[in-house]
Amino acid sequence: MKKSIVILLTILFTGLVQAQEFYGEATYMSKTKMDMSWMPEGREMSPQQKKRIEERMKKMGEKTFVLKFNRNESTYKEEKELAAPSQGRGWGNFMGTMMGGEKYKNLKEGQWIEQRDMMGKTFLIKDSIPNLDWKITGETRMIGQYQAIKATATKKNNELDWSSFRRRRGDSQEEKKKDSLALAEGKVDEVFEQDPQVEITAWFTPQIPVQHGPAEYAGLPGLILEVSAGNTTLLCSKIVVNPEDKEDIKPATKGEETTEEEYNALFKEKMKEMSERFRGRGGRGGGRRG
Q: Rounded to the nearest 10 degrees, how much is the dihedral formed by the CA atoms of 55, 75, 20, 237?
C-alpha cells in the first residue's frame, strides 16, 4: 500500500513539475518550547522575575519565516519586527548575534548556504543539504486547503540547537540553585544534555509539486507544510503560488566561508571566552538596565 502511494505521488509530482515552472512563497510560524525548569524560586528569584524571563524566552521561540521557492532553489528568512537599537547586553545580546540569516537551498546541486552573524562578524556557511531517509506513512490530514501526507525521519541533532537540550539534574530547590549558578558562569554542559538524534515528523502536499520545505528540510514529493523536530514546530500559515511579481532566488554572498562543523567549533570557543570574561566581572553582565 505504501509503495503504491509513493509511486503514484512520484508520477503526479513529475508530471506537474514538467507542466510548468513553479514559483511560490510560503509563510511559516515557528514555535519552540524551552526548558525553564532550572529556574529557582523564592529568595533567588521573585515570581515577577521568573514570569518576565519565561515570557522573554517564549517570545524568542515564536518567529515568522518566509520560504521563497522555484522548481530547484529556495530561500528561507525570518521576518523580523523593528526593534530598539539596543536590546540588552551580555549573554542575551551574544545569543542574538548567532541567529542564522537567510538560508538558501539548491536541490540539483545538493547545496546549502546560510549567512550567520557572530559578534559583529558575518559568516557564510556552505555545506550539503541533509540527506534524510524519509518514510512516507500514508496517513493524511488537511492543513488549510491542502491535503497533507505524513512522513517521518531521524537526523543528527545540531549541537547548537538549544531547544533540543534537557536538564541533567532533578527539580529540587538545591539542584535548581546549582543549575542557576552554573548557567551564570556559562557552564551549559553541566546543566543540560542533548540526545544525539531527533525524530522528525513532516506533513507535505503533492498539490504544490516542489521538494522544498522550511529551514533545512527538503526531499519529499511536495511542499512541506508542517515539520516537528524535538521541541520545535514549523507550521505553514499562508501560501502564494505563481504571483505576478516573482523574485530571483539567489544565495547570500557576503561573509567568511566556512562549514557548519567549523562554525559550531568557533561559536563554542567564543562562548567559552564570554564565560571567562563574565566570571572575571564577578558574574555581572554589564550592569542592570531598566
A: 0
Rounded distance between C-alpha atoms, residue 259 and residue 125, angstroms: 5
Residue 257, Cβ neighbours under 10 Å: how many? 10
Are 225 and 204 in contact, with CB atoms under 8 Å apart?
A: yes
Q: What one-character DSSP code corresponds to residue 37? A: T
* β strands within the chain, DSSP E: 23-32, 62-70, 73-78, 100-106, 111-118, 121-128, 135-143, 146-156, 165-167, 192-194, 197-205, 223-229, 232-241, 256-258
pLDDT tens digit sequence for 20-42: 578 999 999 998 876 665 555 55
* Category of 31 on φ-ψ map: left (φ > 0), alpha (ψ -120 to 50) or beta: beta
Bridging pattern class, strands 256-258 and 121-128 = parallel
Contacts of 42 (CB under 8 A, 6+ apart): 173
Q: Between vectors from CA 143 to CA 137 and to CA 146, what angle results, nearest 5°?
A: 90
Q: Quote the CA–CA distance of 6 and 135 in Å, as a whole number.
A: 10
What SS3 class is residue 270?
A: helix
For the question of whether the overall pTM of this predicted structure is more than 0.85, the answer is: no
Neighbours of 134 (CB within 10 A): 19
